[in-house]
Amino acid sequence: MAYTAESIEQLAEQFAQLPGIGRKTAHRLALFVLKMSREEVDRFAHALVNVKEKVRYCSVCSNITEHDPCSICSNPKRDRVMICVVQEPHDVIAIERTNDFKGLFHVLGGALSPLDGVGPEDLRIKELLQRASQSEIEEIILALNPNVEGEATTLYLSKLLKPLGVKVTRIARGLPVGSDLEYADQATLSRALEGRVAV
Amino acid sequence: MKIAKFQLENFRNHSHTVIACTDCANVFLGNNGAGKTNIVEGLAYLCVTKSFYAVNDLTALKVGESSFRISGELISDSGNEFSVQISYDGEAGEKRYLLNGKTTQKLSSIIGKFPIVILSPEYSGITFGSPTDRRKFLDFIISQASARYLEDVLEYRRILRQRNRILLDGKSSNGSVTHLLEPWSEGLIEYGSRVVQRRAEFVRDFEPYLSRAYEAIAGEFEKPNSKYLSAVASERLSDADGLRMEYRRLLEESKHEERRVGATLVGPHRDDLLFTLDRMELRRFGSQGQHRTFLIAMKIAEFEFLRALCGETPILILDDVFSELDGQRSGKLIETVSSMGQYFITTTDDRVFPQEFFTEAGNKHVVVKSGSIIREQAAA
Ligand SMILES: Nc1ncnc2c1ncn2[C@@H]1O[C@H](COP(=O)(O)OP(=O)(O)OP(=O)(O)O)[C@@H](O)[C@H]1O
Ligand SMILES: [Mg+2]
Ligand SMILES: [Zn+2]
């Protein structure tokens, strides 16, 4: 379109890639950037690049971190006999907020979903099995999302984990169906952790 | 449930149409293509978030417009008021449902809140058509009566699609997919059993409603019957554990065949409903008139069933029902529905109604032309 600047179009296109941002909103955001001061725009751009440069995945639990291993994996006060398996980094935050769990985490990076092309090899399952075979590990808690993909992944993992001789539990199904762990309130999540059952 | 008023904006051929409803008959009169069905289709959107015949939301969007909106005021039998609004943004492909001003996302917290029964030629597939038509009928009515069922069905469909994808992908490779299928099979059995059991229960509970309604419409001619057909043996249908065991066995039995075909072959998505009249299968032996009568009876039974189960009088929609009925049956239908509360009816010819009809309190006459209301008249 001749009556808009090409750089605005390009920026809008970038915004439109973000989840939950439609074409109209992307345009509004791009025009907003135009009105920001040079310093503000610099800070914004710097923050974007920083995230990419400084943040990496913890080599132990795959959570996002700036220091490897992450602050949870390297904390001597954590209980090293328990690993809580979650889908995404934001699930770690949700469980940490409850203050009820003192063990370690393992972030799978998703759940099985053939429709989205996600199979076992796309998740950090090999790494989990390795950690679970270490002698100090006593319990693996599966805390995946209470939807059909989370359920299937829970079953898949428990089948692989059980032969390793660790206790395998899953969080109780008190969570509303179809919800994400991320959005469960703290009380519900605490109760679910407390009431975990063997699988 | 009653609808006090509603309005359509950029919906089908309606730019802006406002309808104040009466408590009994709301009759929409107009020529072919005037926009009568569009009005009652809007009501379906309002009550259950979707159309009963549009292939998708985009086709319901007025040509040349970017979004449609339908809003309405509803009043429950006990006098509670609800304001409902559903909008669709064609560009973003997004639908939004507002209940008393609050965004509601969960389908299961909307469906069944405003029960609705629709009688339309669109539904002739229930008796004439394929098993898919009959499964849709089952799922729609049970979902309105039970939010839990709707959740189970949605989960089941999701698992089925995931599982079928593995089978389909596996067709082109020779490797074993057993370990990949296994975790999905468990969910399939769990949710599938619940769906099958609930459907069979429904068919059993529905039976007396159907008999009563058929007799009211057709007199004491033939005896209607319906039966749920499932690969899972019928004597197991009421025993949850037995059902799951049987399901597991059938799934195991079909494992080579499903790999060959590339799709899951047993479960509620393959089941059917069999209708008979005096033990003769309706689909194969029924006359045109018997089909029509059966469908009308089913819908009246659906109305009574939902009223009993939801504890709320459903909203009744009769779209284009007279074109297929003779004068006597049309009269009988009007007489029957007149005692059922508020209803919405479309017709090209108001001569099917008795002469004094539009002077009776609670009845309203709305003339539709080219997506607008050109005249309306309610009895005092
Ligand atoms: N998305 C749309 N945008 C604009 N007009 C539409 C759209 N979809 C359908 N229409 C128009 O709506 C009209 C059909 O309306 P409707 O189905 O309500 O007719 P009707 O009054 O029920 O007629 P009949 O008596 O034949 O059943 C047609 O003229 C069609 O062109
Ligand atoms: Mg019509
Ligand atoms: Zn770590």
The level-1 CATH class of the largest domain in chain B: Mainly Alpha
* Rg of chain B, Å, rounded: 22 Å
| Element string of chain A (H = helix, E = strand) | HHHEEEHEHEHEHE
The first-level CATH class name of the largest domain in chain A:
Alpha Beta
What's the number of helices of chain A? 7
Query: Share of helix among residues of chain A?
Result: 40-55%
Category by helix and strand content of chain B: alpha/beta
Judging by the overall fold, what is the CATH architecture of the largest domain in chain B? Up-down Bundle
Spell out the key features of this protein.
heterodimer, A: 199 residues, alpha/beta, Dna Topoisomerase Vi A Subunit, Chain: A, domain 2, five-stranded mixed β-sheet, B: 380 residues, Rossmann fold, Glutathione S-transferase Yfyf (Class Pi), Chain A, domain 2, six-stranded antiparallel β-sheet, 23% strand, globular, binds adenosine-5'-triphosphate, binds zinc ion
How does this structure look, described?
The complex is a heterodimer of chains A (199) and B (380). Chain A is built from 7 helices and 7 strands, in the order αααβββαβαβαβαβ. Chain A has helices at 6-16, 23-35, 38-54, 89-98, 125-133, 148-161, 186-194; strands at 56-57, 64-65, 82-86, 104-107, 139-142, 167-170, 197-198. Chain A has a 5-stranded mixed sheet. Chain A has a two-stranded antiparallel ribbon with strand order 1-2. In chain A, strand 1 (56-57) and strand 2 form a beta hairpin. Chain A starts with 5 loop residues before the first helix and ends with a strand. Chain B has 2 domains: 1-115 and 314-380, Rossmann fold, CATH 3.40.50.300; 123-311, Glutathione S-transferase Yfyf (Class Pi), Chain A, domain 2. Chain B has 11 helices and 15 strands. In chain B, the strands form 3 sheets. In chain B, strands 2-1-4-5-6-7 form a 6-stranded antiparallel sheet. Chain B has a 6-stranded mixed sheet with strand order 8-12-13-3-14-15, sandwiched between helices. In chain B, strand 10 (272-277) and strand 11 (280-281) form a beta hairpin. In chain B, helix 5 (147-171) crosses helix 8 (255-261), helix 6 packs across helix 7 (240-253) and helix 6 crosses helix 10 (288-310). The chains are: A alpha/beta (199), B alpha/beta (380). Chains A and B meet through helix 6 of A and helix 5 and helix 6 of B.
